[in-house]
Amino acid sequence: MDTAAYTYKNKLKHTQPGMAKHYDFIKMAENGDTLGHEFLMLREPAEDMFVMTAETGALRLYLNQDKLVDCGNTAYISIRQSHHKFKADVTMDYSGLTGEDKAGMALLQNNLYHIRAEYCNGFVSVIKVQDGKELVLAKQQVPAFDSKLTLWIKADDEQADIGCGDITLAENMDIHELSTEVAGGFVGCTIGMYGTTDEEKTNAYVDFLSFSYKKCERIY
User: Fold this and answer.
1) What end-to-end distance do the CA atoms of the chain give, in Å?
2) Are 140 and 127 in contact, with CB atoms under 8 Å apart?
3) Does the domain at residues 6-12+21-215 carry the CATH identifier 2.60.120.200?
């Protein structure tokens, strides 16, 4: 836990742009808190896309068939990237996933340009999407005895490292394609949590336990 985070020190529901953030969704669920206005979603998200109550004990995100590479209402909850150099991490419980269900975190410019760290069927993969084409850069099996894991991204301008727990899965990734000069647009990137499924009718979900974001000094 980042005790220097704005959200930790001030116990506020909303945060100021550029400040470090730490969201303990377990405590927020216990306290009946809601997500602040800094959280963003894609297009027209379903009203029941997520819940955060004492019953769920976390931020529970329900999966649908829309992928991040689609222009649909993907199950995606994010905040804006505020710095060129930053670290972000999410801790999640994937016990609500089955088969080829996928969930994780993403650094998203748009549906055609983004990077993902995602869990699926016992493996964590790092995927880079450039001009709509997906490239798997790394894939690592995770221990079968636990359904919780932490994914993280460290970015330094146009390079990034991505990992799971103590393991760095992809190092010195070139992410210059996420810039507005390449990907288009004018609002920069978001970073957040997502999930997707191939099943038309499903009760699949992923529980996010925490989410942190902070500015970093030079990484490389």
Assistant:
1) 24
2) no
3) yes
| Residue located via tokens 């999930």 | 195
Angle, CA of 94, 98 and 104, to the nearest 5°: 40
Q: Residue ranges of the domains in the chain? A: 6-12+21-215
218 falls in which pLDDT band (50, 70, 90)? low
Q: How far apart are CA 128 and CA 173, in angstroms?
A: 9
30-42: pLDDT as tens digits: 988 888 888 999 8
What is the DSSP secondary-structure string of 39-96? Answer: -EE-SS--TTSEE--TTT-SEEEE--S--TTSSS--EEEEEE---SEEEEEEEEE-TT
Model confidence band, residue 71 (pLDDT cutoffs 50, 70, 90): confident
Are 52 and 207 contacting, i.e. CB atoms less than 8 angstroms apart? no
Cβ-contact 76, 61 below 8 angstroms: no
Beta strands in 121-218 (DSSP E): 123-130, 133-141, 148-156, 159-164, 167-174, 190-196, 205-215
Q: How far from 84 is each of 148, 154, 183, 213, 219, CA to CA, in Å?
A: 29, 10, 16, 12, 11
